[in-house]
Amino acid sequence: MQVVGNHNLHTLEAYNAPVCVLCKACGHRGTVHGITLRRLGGVTHGNMTPLRHYKYVCTACGSREHELYLTHPPYVPIWLSGHGPPEDTPPAG
Ligand SMILES: [Zn+2]
């Protein structure tokens, strides 16, 4: 699902997966793990900091324009390969 204002690190932990970051400028897809976000510092509210408040910079073009998605671990490589937006439903089994 697309990340909205009230999604935070607690939400991310529930998915047990990285944040899926889609660059709106060039279409590059990447992931950012929660532990990386925790290390960024400079952001208050700890785990309650909305995911959208962190700064994501595209590793391909340097753009900061992005869309964030949450998905479950089995879907992350599928999404990275160019299919998406990522599935929201947990995989069967
Ligand atoms: Zn980009």
Provide structural commentary.
This protein has 93 residues and is α+β, with helices and mostly antiparallel strands. It has one domain (9-80). Helices cover 20% and strands 14% of the residues. The chain has a three-stranded antiparallel sheet with strand order 2-1-3. The model has no long low-confidence stretch (mean pLDDT 85). Bound molecules: zinc ion. Zinc ion is lined by residues 23, 25-26, 28, 58, 60-61, 63.
| Total helical segments | 3
Strand order of the largest sheet: 2-1-3
What structural class do the secondary elements suggest?
alpha+beta
Shape assignment:
globular
**Contiguous runs where pLDDT drops below 50 for at least 5 residues:** none
Question: How much helix is in the residues?
Answer: 10-25%
Give the topology string: H per helix, E per strand: HEEHEH
Present as ligands are: zinc ion
